Amino acid sequence: MTIADTGYVCRYCRQPSDPSGTSCPRCGAPIDVTAVVSRSGWMKQPAIKDMARIQFGQSHVQIEGRQVPTADFALAAGDSIYFGHHTMLWLDPATRLQAMSMAGGWKRMIAGLPVIMTQATGPGHIALSDDHAGEIVALPLNVGQQIWVREHRFLAASGNLTYGFEANNIWITTGSGNDAKTTYPLGWIGDRFSAQNNAALLLLHAPGNTFVRDLAQGESILIQPTALLYRDLSVQAHLHIEYPRTQGFFSMFNRFSYRHVWLRLTGPGRVAMQSVFEREEESEQITGISPATEQRW
Amino acid sequence: MDRIECQWCHSQNDATLTTCDVCGAPLDVKDLVSESGWKEAPRLRDMTEFKFSISTCQVEGHVVPVAEMNLGAQDWVYFEHHVLLWKDQGTPLSQMATPGGVKRSFAGMPHIISVAQGPGRIAFSRDAPGEMVVLPLHPGMELDVREHAFLVASGAISYSYVRIKGLANIVHGGTGMFMDRFVTAGVPGLLILHGYGDVMERTLAPGEKVLVEPGGFLYKDSTVQMQAVQLPLKTGMFGRSMYLAEMTGPGRVGIQSMYQHHAAGE
């Protein structure tokens, strides 16, 4: 009986899976746990069990550790993965490494993203880890499936997964004249991965814990922009600015503004967020903004 | 009488114990070894207590664990002063000057090591999520530890440092100019490290090699040779060379999964 024949679908990676083991062979999520869903509808993605194995092609990856997990790849002959070189923890001398140059190198350098990806080809072992306490999230992608991922969250992808990136077009300008400053709450660039000819595997590293939810058609939610981990391409994202009611002392300063910058996500589709996010540093008055909604209390 | 061997430090324990009396590792869990041969350092249970000499150490917490020591009257421990979390008022502190103080200052290493003398209680912790790695050292053992990774050591262990040899190793190795060296002479001692993230250990056979990101290196037996090697790979817009630390056996190598990449190249 093949995996497709079991009729079981993993509730985390949404792919046909095998319920007879202890973890999903495609994404490593535990099989034997009850879904933990908050009252507001966020499902906590359980951490991949220590030493769980995830299969892709003729190769597999073993997830080791719990605080800052390591992805330990056993690459079969001819199979490959690509990754940012700064995540490489160790490798067998036999594993072949080569550079995979990226289009748009200048843009990527300005955006602080790796200009050159590293490709490792089997046979051999190689292990990757990130530098934050958190979880590894495995996303198996079927043929034709695409996913958007926030910058710097990508850990590794199987060699048959197509990688692209695009400007997020989400920005805020504060100040004016020579003091004008543009910031990108979601990052300047987002990563886009698509499985074109074969099923493929994508690994992300999420600082903190990871939560997933499905937005219905037209359903909308506000989250911290840097908490977004990934989203289906069908989910729309734009800014929402919320001005709490102020009075007295603080309302006298019109150069600064007391506001919250949210990311509004509108369904349909799946979104995932991480519990660790960056605080917004900028508090000057907004003078320009990408398409956004606004609420003044 | 039945004995249980600790899978981490190989000490023999009474069969009634659930944690190793020498290093605190759980005794009733299977040894977690990856297919590629890396063994996970045992995650110590909260409030686990173990003995050294006539003193005890209790490990508290999971995220940034604390080592709380109850020192016997003749026992003492040494540590870098910034890892001290709290102490009893009556626990005496002193300083242990290390040789090569100026060299160590230039290398960013502490040139004065603090000493706490029993009897009394004292506790230590570092500043980021990670694991406490308990390494009981038997007589005659020599262990090299990455700079700033050691948390506390018992007085039975002698402390020195070794300069990393070779300009290429210093410039490209990413492990700094010095490594701490811990040696036991006639009696066993206790060494506790703090590894950032998860800690894994692998024992290399004679001549066996593994390439490790220098920032991930945590400790090694002194028999393991470490050499910076250049990879046939350029990184970044301007094509910087990439170096890894080649470890050659025989001996143990310990790595940590959370580190700052030493030369990102961008």
Description:
The complex is a heterodimer of chains A (297) and B (266). By secondary structure, chain A is an all-beta fold. Helices cover 2% and strands 47% of the residues of chain A. Chain A has 1 helix and 27 strands. In chain A, the strands form 6 sheets. In chain A, strands 3-20-25-22-13-18-15 form a 7-stranded antiparallel β-sheet, with no helix packed on it. In chain A, 42% of the residues are buried. Chain B is mainly beta. Chain B has 2 helices and 23 strands. Chain B has helices spanning 101-106, 167-173, and strands spanning 3-5, 12-14, 39-40, 48-52, 55-60, 66-71, 76-79, 84-87, 93-97, 112-117, 120-124, 130-137, 142-146, 150-154, 157-163, 178-184, 189-196, 199-204, 209-212, 217-221, 225-235, 240-248, 251-256. In chain B, strands 3-18-23-20-13-16-15 form a 7-stranded antiparallel β-sheet, with no helix packed on it. Chain B has a 6-stranded antiparallel β-sheet with strand order 9-10-7-14-17-12, with no helix packed on it. A 5-stranded antiparallel β-sheet of chain B has the order 4-5-6-11-8, with no helix packed on it. Chain B starts with a strand and ends in a 10-residue tail after the last strand. The A-B interface holds A 50-51, 62, 64-70, 72, 74, 85-93, 97-99, 105-106, 109, 112, 114-116, 118, 125, 127, 129-133 and B 32, 34-36, 38, 40, 43, 63, 129-131, 196-198, 200, 209-213, 216, 231-237, 242, 244, 246, 255, 257-261, 264-266.
